[in-house]
Amino acid sequence: MGSKQLLYCFLVVVCALTLRPPEALAQYDVPHAVLAGGGGIAAGTHIVYGTVGQPVIGISAGGENRAKAGFWYLAGISSTVDVAFAACAGELRDDAVVISWVLSASGGFDGYNVYRSEKAEEEFGRINAALVRETSYRDETAAPGNTYLYRVGAVKGEKETFSLTMTVTLPPKPLTLYQNYPNPFNPSTAISFYNPVQQLVSVAIYDVSGARVRMLCDRVMAVGKHSIPWNGTNDAGSTVGSGVYYYRLIAGKENLTKKMVVVR
Is 198 within 8 Å of 221 (Cβ atoms)? Predict the structure, then answer.
């Protein structure tokens, strides 16, 4: 491209910035593609494709998007952040909050950090122990009934670019008894449950006749998810035989029971 054409491109972009409504704008240099047949905006991707062979130099309209044909991408955004994310989402999945994100730029990031805050006025704290290599993260520590703010940081060298903030509200969760795992089992299994308030909790094992085999827990427990192992022995320390057994959770005025199988 000659010097006059470059000057013209610069003037067109400047005019676009001057004549647009007073909103935050971000401009990105887009790598040239190698596709023939002209360029333009591909719906839903916000990427300029096919810069080779673009017949006219100018600004092409596409809703809130503006693209300098085969040269620039100009986007109207709601803030002046350095945009590295096309989308971020948070959802409740199997008692955990799963944060996922889609990149809007191929920057060759080293990895990602996930930050969380419980109140808007509080500082964000990183919740991942090591740099995340995937584009999703599972937050197992989020408590039911709470509202959290999340944001993701894309790390490249010494620089970290942040996503916009996401708000995730978890519904309250009642007393819950999960199926033991593994089941059937030999020689041991784990019994998990969710305790909604701090209270006295007991977990016991019974045989098919209703006789108690083993008391696993009988104490005050904090709010949250807990897991208690059972090694397949009774209160006397002897190994129980193969068969069907029941485990009962009693917390406050509630009690829940599930079945499990020992295979020797």
Answer: yes
